[in-house]
Amino acid sequence: KSASVVPLIxxxxxxxxRKQKTSTPGDALRSMTGYAVDTADLPGGQLSLELRAxxxxxxxxxxxxxxxxxxxxxxxxxxxxxxxxxxxxECRINFAPRxxxxxxxxxxxxxxxxxxxxxxxxxxxxxxARPLAVQExxxxxxxxxxxxxxxxxxxxxxxxxxxxxxxxxxxxxxxEGDKLKSMILERVAGIRSHVERLRPRTVEIVAGYxxxxxxxxxxxxxxxxxxxxxxxxxxxxxxxxxxxxxDEELDRLVTHLDEVTxxxxxxxxxxxxxxxxxxxxxxxxxxxxSKSASLEFTQTSVELKVLIEQMREQIQNIE
Length: 319
What we know:
- The chain contains eight helices and six strands, in the order E-E-E-E-E-H-E-H-H-H-H-H-H-H.
- It is 56% helix and 13% strand.
- By secondary structure, it is α+β, with helices and mostly antiparallel strands.
- Strand 3 and strand 4 form a beta hairpin.
- Residues 1-25 have low confidence and may be disordered.
- The strands form two sheets. A four-stranded mixed sheet has the order 3-4-6-5, covered by helices on one side.
- The protein has helices at residues 73-83, 109-125, 134-138, 151-220, 230-244, 247-266, 271-290, 295-315; strands at 14-15, 18-19, 34-42, 45-54, 59-65, 87-97.
């Protein structure tokens, strides 16, 4: 390579032999953190369905619900899996009977008679036992004529609640995803500014090295020699330029940054792709630091790694 900086070569991520076309915005970029709750007020009580999620490498589902709703789990898993790709998600389903329901005009006489007979038999066997209190009798299941809820109807309503809760859940994740996207793009712009600032510095550093080396060789020349060997000086400068040449690293940094921007704009489940790109960006920043020919390059390498780490932390929360 010559001492001059190699012109920027535009690179593209390709599929086969075709260049990848510029992508247009697609699905929303979503955070893995989200929350939603939806309820249905019914004559017998209130049915509620709650979704909450945090980060996870894969889709990890757990359900907290009574045994009456356990048969719904396969259908609920299918609904969630169609709209959520990653995250540790917890689903809670609860049915709370109404406490303000009107009391019946009379007690459940057959049940009351049966309870009385059983209570007397128990007291006969255990004379020291305490008899049932009035409030315990009134709270006995079925004593006030309450009927069990229609579980078939509750299951149907729970599935509808899941669909509406998922819509709210994804909307909240999309809003947070927009914020994460903005924060990441700010860091991308910061890295780009560092790259553009470094490009012309290589030529300046090589030129300064040539001048410094020339003066040093003149000082070390035997008194009998009148001039420097231009070929030797040129050779030393070329070797130095090759050693500190960071054009390829800068080009790859720009290419990776372009891909990060594209993935953010396309949206969808981009978290794993973005995480891989952070590894590649960090690799180039490390190489840039290892080729450092000045304190400025060293400091810039550190600043790049700080920005990349900030992006990586945000990307850990992207689906």
